[in-house]
Amino acid sequence: MSPRPDPRAPGLHVGDEVTIGEGVMLGVNVTIHDETSIGDGCVIEDGAVVGKRPHLSRYSTTPRSGLHGAAIAAGVSIGTHSVIFAGATVEPDVVIGDQCFIRERTRLGTGCVIGRGSVVEPDVTIGSRCRIQTNVYLTRATLLEEDVFVGPGALTTNDDTMARHDESYELRGATLRRACRVGGGALLLPGIEVGEEAFVAAGAVVTRDVPPRALVMGVPARRVRQIDDADLLEHWR
Question: CA–CA separation, 221 vs 188, rounded Å?
Fold first, then answer.
């Protein structure tokens, strides 16, 4: 059912079985789709769409059923013209920048930040306090543990065949372990693991796993040195 006009904000449209908590600030022309929950103290800015159902191509391997509305916890900020799909879970105090695209069955951990124009594809899990910069692309089946940093324009991939495979093929996104850092414009090939506290330099093309605390750079990325103790996250909280 299409969301209906709602008097709580100019141009607001709200679907069935939507819950909106106390102290929520709603911008102009916001749409909240069926079965979505919005926690206390959230900010949803102009033109944002929350709980959108996906429309999939016949080639998509994404499950087509079982989605309910988006679950937005307390204190979340959703930027102008961002789209949050049904089945997404956003934990408390997350900041989602303008024009972001958060797909179904994603989970954004407490206190993480998603930069303007970034795309988080289906089945991505982002841990608490991660910082995703502007125009980052996180492909389906990618995992970020806690305190990961991803620089602007970084890309992950998940399909070595570039769509020339049968239904038995398993997409393999990147795994970014706790407190690792990926520089701006870096490219991670399918199934890559970046180890805990590792550092991927800007513009690197990562074709093999990066060990914990390794610093890699170049095309293809090569290990240059070990991360110093002074640069570990525990010294920078």
Answer: 10
Could you tell me the pLDDT band of residue 56, with boundaries at 50, 70 and 90? confident
Q: pLDDT tens digits for 145-182?
A: 999 999 999 999 999 999 898 888 999 999 999 999 99
Angle at 49 between CA 43 and CA 51, to 5 degrees: 100
Residue for token pair 């959703």? 78
What fold is seen in the domain 1-56+66-102?
UDP N-Acetylglucosamine Acyltransferase; domain 1 (2.160.10)
End-to-end, the C-alpha distance of the chain in Å comes to 46
What is the DSSP track for 168-204? Answer: T------EE-TT-EE-TT-EE-TT-EE-TT-EE-TT-
Identify the pLDDT of residue 65.
Answer: 64
Tell me, yes or no, if the two domains 1-56+66-102 and 130-237 fold the same way: yes
Spatial contact of 121 and 101, defined as CB atoms under 8 Å apart: no
In this structure, are residues 127 and 110 in contact, taking their beta carbons and an 8 Å threshold? Answer: no
CATH 2.160.10.10 assigned to 130-237 = yes
Spatial distance between the Cα atoms of 187 and 205, rounded to a whole number of angstroms: 5
Residue 219 makes CB contacts below 8 A (sequence gap 6+) with 203, 204, 205
Residue pair 151/185 in contact by the 8 Å Cβ criterion: yes
For the chain, which residues make up each domain, given as ranges?
1-56+66-102, 130-237
CB 54 within 8 A of CB 46: no
The predicted pLDDT at position 107 comes to 98
The pLDDT tens digits of the residues spanning 182-200 come to 999 999 999 999 999 999 9
